């Protein structure tokens, strides 16, 4: 018990004497760094992993009721959860009794809704190939047609007809081409409901977080599994908390907020994280729901898997308005259920009676903050969301434009169209007789507009905004994705410059790879179309004494401003005491043994409950020689070249696939790799497009396990869905680089490069992730693939890996995430499709 007593004594000394008085954990106000001209640096306050402060004023302690300090029993232990974890808890199935889900857990997920768009027919094909005939829960599924709505070819119309017929036969809510972009429909029709979880086979499902619905992308195989069984799997990502401070100034929008975040925090700080946006009441009231939707939508470009806003008074007011609006237009759509089935005041009463919120003391992987009051209008680009520039700097450069776009699910709602129309209204002239001459777009500029949905367009028409834009010379397009994804009318031609209110601007996204694309707010896009060059409407006025944008790591709260209740402080003490007791008990059970090797023995390996259940027939250990590919950002095209991806005959032949795997990384890979190797690479492995062949080609080479510093999220999903195992071990990457790199490779997953990143050809229906940084490799080109002689063992039961660094080298171990039985079951059945077949057969 010596270890236990020491732990408690340490707790008594440090917690009782330190945490119950004010300490200066943050930098003083004078040390705050202001951001203005690049390069930008950030002030860093310590990044606490707790949502609430742990200090209390002495006056609170002095007035503490004796009854509170003399409790005979501590409060019932709880597991504080983030808002993300609470929502996932609701939609997870088969959890053990008393289990509280947390970041890193794999769960069997039954989302509230699942949306598919133009890729509904490929999903249906996969669904039927699995052997499914009936959608498990038709009310769970939503189908929309939005991507290629301008395409009137016989082939596309046939596909659209097949999707509509399938939806009708299955009894699924369906929205035809021209009705709106799927993500907007999910929000305005109430499928994306606060406190629920909705997924879509599209990367911008993050947008649902703008209305406090946890939205995240899934791939086609996941969608087919949900159609067939109502379920798929999900690993809860690390959660980052972004704390907003201050009030958003007039002339600055939600688009400026997210463009600034993408540019200021451009070293992958939130890559593959879930984000929760917070702020005090006044701050959040300066962010209306349409701005929140734009911010949440572009968290995808920021690299996140979700972007969640809270259920607060702003959202409540918007929901009441939508419910009232729905009650006024009761005509049911011909292919979907009534809006009032979802948007009604009774349902809102139930929601508001017990809204979900993050718990005090919930654990966050990291915290960032941004003072909205210090923001000005921002523009992204050219050709990268990681480059964000204050509008006034670009105005000084007098950059002419050829095309402007007010399109997409990011920024083409009624409020966005109204803002753009206001630019032209304000620019209209009146002569001496009172005759008004409407303002026109600049000569030589093409201005394209498309509402996010038909109801949003009708609302803009009723307000007169749509007509103002048409009178100015704007060219209307049907409600759909269109130019945002490089389809249909008005694409950028070689040498042209465009500015858009959409969400992506990497090379080739909106047309030619030889064009330049910028992103801005609707009013900046409209003002640029009016002036013929990048500029704004002049609505923003810089505050007196402004020194730059204030933001950085931590919660941004000055220490002298911290204050919490004594109850919160004591509850924190109790939680830390309980943790100390658990640490002491584990040490006693282990006999106080010391670690082995440089990595150390992992404490708790033999403690009851620490072992993972292994399904019958699933290997307890996976091991092999390490095959080292020293590069970060190895994208899916490097793993499996795009020229083979859409050749169905080639991609259905495992022998051919094995012959070209990693070809674009190293043409000599096939001659070095052997059956049973463990492939190890750097950070962000598998970024890029959603092609499943990147995973199946590695399996075709008979490599059962991939290890990386980190994985691209979609590759991680495709791997498990196709029975390829993967595990992240950043330390192993560092050790291998120290031993085998020809020169120090300082490139990390967060280092943006300068090589052009282009939209993969023939990828229009693919769930593509944000473009990766250029692939970083060591200087010695003939060592792209190295047989190391090191061995890697994954002990699945004990959730740890054992690395032997050569015959006479060190051996070390490290704890890794658990591979629970639900994921083992998918891998054991040959992937998610095999798992679905088994579930169908068992039903």
Give a structural overview.
The protein contains 29 helices and 30 strands. The longest helix has 24 residues, at 566-589. Residues 1-77, 586-609 and 743-768 have low confidence and may be disordered. The protein has 843 residues and is an alpha/beta fold.
Taken from the alpha-carbon principal axes, the silhouette is globular
Strand content: 5-15%
Radius of gyration in whole Å, from Cα?
28 Å
Q: Main beta sheet: strand number and arrangement? A: 7 strands, mixed
Mean pLDDT: 84
Please estimate the helix content.
Answer: 25-40%
Number of strands: 30
Structural class: alpha/beta
Helix segment count? 29
Q: Low-confidence spans: pLDDT under 50, at least 5 residues?
A: 1-77, 586-609, 743-768
Distance between the ends: 52 Å
Give the spatial strand order of the biggest sheet: 27-26-25-24-28-29-30
Secondary-structure blueprint of this entry?
Elements lengths: L1 H18 L23 E2 L13 H5 L3 H4 L13 H9 E2 L12 E4 L3 E4 L3 H11 L10 E4 L9 H17 L2 E3 L6 H7 L8 E4 L13 E4 L2 H10 L2 E4 L3 E7 L8 H11 L9 E5 L2 H5 L3 H9 L8 E3 L4 H16 L16 H9 L12 E6 L6 E3 L7 E3 H7 L5 E4 L7 H14 L1 E2 L5 E2 L8 E4 L4 H9 L2 H7 L3 E2 L20 E4 L15 E4 L2 H10 L19 E3 L12 H24 L31 E9 L6 H4 L2 H4 L2 H4 L2 H7 L8 H4 L5 E4 L11 H8 L4 E4 L4 H9 L3 E4 L1 H11 L44 E11 L4 E5 L6 E5 L5 H8 L3 H11 L1
Parallel strand pairs: 1-23, 4-5, 4-7, 5-6, 7-8, 10-11, 10-13, 11-12, 16-19, 16-21, 19-20, 21-22, 24-25, 25-26, 26-27
Antiparallel strand pairs: 2-3, 3-9, 13-23, 14-15, 17-18, 24-28, 28-29, 29-30
